[in-house]
Amino acid sequence: xxxxxxxxxxxxxTLPEQTPVWQKLESLFRQVVSSYGYSxxxxxxxxxxxxxxxxxxxxTDIVExxxxxxxxxxxxxxxxxxxxxxxxxxxxNEHGLLYNQERRLWYTGPMFRHERPQxxxxxxxxxxxxxxxxxxxxxxxxxxxxxxxxxxxxxxxDEHVELQLNSLGSNDARALYKDALVEFLSAHVDILDEDSxxxxxxxxxxxxxxxNPDIQALLVDAPKLSxxxxxxxQAHFAQLQKYLDVAGVKYTINERLVRGLDxxxxxxxxxxxxxxxxxxxxxxxxxxxxxxxxxxxxATPAVGFAMGLERIILMLETLALxxxxxxxxxxxxxxxxxxxxxxxxxxxxxxxTKLPQLKMMHHCGAGNFKKQMxxxxxxxxxxxxxxxxxxxxxxxxxxxxxxxNTAQQTVATDQLIKVLPTYFNELNS
Length: 429
Ligand code: ATP
Ligand code: MG
What we know:
By secondary structure, the protein is an alpha+beta fold. It folds into three domains: about 20-170 and about 230-320, Bira Bifunctional Protein, Domain 2 (BirA Bifunctional Protein, domain 2, 2-Layer Sandwich); about 170-220, no CATH class; about 330-429, Rossmann fold (3-Layer(aba) Sandwich). The protein is about 40% helix and about 20% strand. The strands form three sheets. An eight-stranded mixed beta sheet has the order 1-5-6-11-10-9-7-8. Strand 15 (about 395-400) and strand 16 form a beta hairpin. The radius of gyration is 28 Å and the shape is elongated. The structure holds adenosine-5'-triphosphate and magnesium ion.
């Protein structure tokens, strides 16, 4: 037997049993973003490597060690997108969507990062993202947060997630803070690990989100970003909190939250859960007023977020909220006897035309009554439509409920379309 070829490590198949919960999540997200008036944008999965280096930053986990970069046949360096914001800004600039306009956009799709695969961390994973452009005030920061909060509510996981907020201030304020932080860190180099030493030189804020407990302990005494915020950023942050308060969204301020990407300023936030172990961030975002200009456009304020779908699905599974999400068929026909396959085929097509909301599975491959009823049960159908020789002769069909205990009834074929909806309450509501 030929050797089986397997999928790439960290890149998952989503099997038929799993897709209903994905579809549910996707449709809820679409519903929520459209209720806020956002429009979808679709970008390519591959971009020029420069785009990510320039936007995400050279000294970040993504650019330093996670990108899938390869040479195109003509020698160009291309990269499978590790995130969507850079592509979205690139597309916005390229097509003139951003200059002097307001935009509220969303996207979804696979992202690629060469990380060590583990629960909640994969090499191909999927995000929903929202990016808004052209609005500098804190009301839009609040809006994207409220939008995400609404999704948690719709999914029933709102009690299990917490919003963490911070402000990174202006570039100037951050530069001042960086100096203070570097001074502090330099006085404690003996405690720093190699990674933090390197970061101290290249991107000192990143030391703040080190996961090393010794460094976390050291940072308790470090200078605080909040003491270095400029007045405008302070006011912006206070205003954002007012909006969240009035909307009843709870949050905690996490001074160590700096985010792993370089382009953020002012607001940064994460939605975290403790029901997933160490991969606890299900959504992360913030303001990135400098990025559009940095990528060659005119200065444009912007704020957005991205959420990881695999982690949200894992949460639904952990909380057993996925149990009822199935995509069983509604009707299965059972056809026994000469000529019933023809009558059954016509009937199935008629049902699909007249009642397109129902999932009608047509029995293929003949077989005896028992075998066909087994198939009907296995399909999860609520009812079986049986055509045997006697039904065929009298122009009738027998309706048998597979779940529930209503007595079976035989109706004339031309009455079927009227009778069927009575078995499906949702069609009548
Ligand atoms: P982490 O700190 O967990 O590595 P990150 O800061 O790198 O996350 P972002 O770039 O902000 O993540 O991406 C937004 C969201 O996408 C994350 O909060 C997470 O839900 C999801 N995500 C990021 N990387 C992965 C991955 N490798 N596998 C699955 N989901 C991911
Ligand atoms: Mg990461």
